[in-house]
């Protein structure tokens, strides 16, 4: 008898976790062994129970999903993390995979896609929602990626960029990411310089253009 695929769900919306738990309970070879609403707790729970698959929402309060993926991956390079997000822009897929995720699906994906992704990751494969993967291939071949400017940001800069354009103040970001106020302010200056904008409002317009708001 094959061992079950153990799964930890990480999402700050209880109703989403409940929906996933109900969906996955229909599969005898998959078992949800833990769930949490925050990245910080996800890291601790991962160390404690070492689930086979982590389904990680990118849009988490506090540490944030991308930072949580990086932290778990830093602890265990073999961790099988499936990024789960409302965003279907290829840039988010790239960032998640760079952080250490092995797969990426969106919240608009069919339930069967989520299940297939979990099984594929458990088998040691990588998996990206087919529709997004197709767009990524087209952009790579044609060189038409509209978000190439944002790709110049480092992982930390991208985290801070997302928080800034979604209305967080420098002080709030410093508290969320456990960084010094001056450190965040310096990052903000670097981000504006790289993106060739002068104000946060201009940066927000850029984020809207590239579809990375509410992340």
Percentage of β-strand residues:
5-15%
- Within CATH, the superfamily of the largest domain carries the name Response regulator
Order of helices and strands: EHEHEHEHEHEHHHHH
Low-confidence stretches: none
Number of helices: 10
Number of strands: 6
CATH architecture of the largest domain: 3-Layer(aba) Sandwich
Shape call: globular
Helical percentage: 40-55%
Task: Average the pLDDT over all residues and give the rounded result.
Answer: 86
Quote the CATH topology of the largest domain: Rossmann fold
Number of domains: 2
The CATH class label of the largest domain is: Alpha Beta
Rg over C-alpha atoms, rounded to the nearest angstrom: 17 Å
- Euclidean distance between termini CA atoms: 41 Å
Largest sheet: 6 strands, parallel
The quaternary structure here is: single chain
**How would you write the strand order of the largest sheet?**
2-1-3-4-5-6
Question: How would you classify the helix and strand content by structural class?
Answer: alpha/beta
Question: Your description of this structure?
Answer:
- The chain is α/β, with parallel strands linked by helices.
- It has helices at residues 14-24, 39-49, 65-75, 90-99, 111-122, 130-142, 155-165, 170-177, 181-195, 200-210, and strands spanning 5-10, 30-36, 53-57, 81-85, 103-106, 127-128.
- Helix 3 links the parallel strand 3 (53-57) and strand 4.
- The longest helix has 15 residues, at 181-195.
- The termini are far apart.
- One of its GO terms (biological process) is regulation of DNA-templated transcription.
- It comes from Candidatus Methylospira mobilis.
- Keywords: DNA-binding, Phosphoprotein.
- Pfam families: GerE, Response_reg.
